[in-house]
Amino acid sequence: MEVVYFAWVRERIGVPRERVETDAATVTDLVSELRAREDRYAVAFADLSALRVAVDQQLTDFDASLEGVREIAFFPPMTGG
Amino acid sequence: MRISVQEAPFHLGAEVEAFTRPLDGMGALVTFTGVVRDSVETPLLAMEIEHYPGMTETALTEIATQAQSRWHLGDVLVIHRYGRLAPGDMIMMVATAAPHRNDAFEAAEFLMDYLKSRAPFWKREITKDGATWVAAKDEDEAALDRWSDPKINS
Description:
The complex is a heterodimer.
Chain A: E1 2-5, H1 7-13, E2 17-19, H2 27-37, H3 39-44, E3 52-55, E4 58-60, E5 71-75
Parallel strand pairs in A: 1-5
Antiparallel strand pairs in A: 1-2, 3-4, 3-5
Chain B: E1 2-6, H1 12-19, E2 28-35, E3 44-51, H2 55-70, E4 75-81, E5 83-85, E6 90-98, H3 101-118, E7 121-127, E8 130-133, H4 138-142
Parallel strand pairs in B: 1-4
Antiparallel strand pairs in B: 2-6, 3-5, 3-7, 4-6, 7-8
C-alpha cells in the first residue's frame, strides 16, 4: 500500500510517500511494523496522540482495519483556516 | 456550492460579487476571510501551507455539504490557498448565503470551526530564526463540541 506523510511527520521520515508491503491488519499494527524498521520511524511515531491518520483519504482511528486499503496517510493535527 | 483549493491569490471583492449574483430569495450574505497574521515579537517572513491533494477537496466538500444539510442555505463558497504566503496575504475565505442571517452566520462559523481542525492543511511559519510548524490549539478542537449539541440545530 501507499503510505503518505505530511508536515513534520514527512520531515522526520524523510520522504513524502513510499510503497510498503505489509500484512498489517490495522493502522496500529502497521505503525508497530514501521517503528521496528528504523529509528526515523520510531521517532516520527513516538507519540500517537500527536498524530492523525487517514485511510483512503478519510480521517479515521488507529484501530481502523487496513483490509482493501490502498493509501494511508500520517500527519499532525491539522491547522487549516 | 463552490470549493476551490488553489495556490494563486483570490480577489475577495470579485469572489463576493460573483457569489451574490444571483441570490434569489436570499436575505443574508456572510463572508469570513482569514489573513496571514504578522507577529510583533518575531516578524514573520512567510507562511507556508501544505495540504493533502485529493483529500483536501473531499474534506471541504463534506464540510460544506454538512453545513447545507444543517442550515437553510442558498449557497456556500470555500476558497483555501496553499503554498508560500506573505504577512497580510489572504489565506482563505468562506461565504454563506441564506434567507435569514442566523443561518448564514452559524453556517459560516461551523465551516470555519470544521475546516480549521478537519481539513488537511498544515501551516509553517518562517521567521529569521527558522521554520516552525504551527501547532493545533486545544480550543480549536473544543470548538467542534458545540456543533454536536442538537440544540444548536433546533
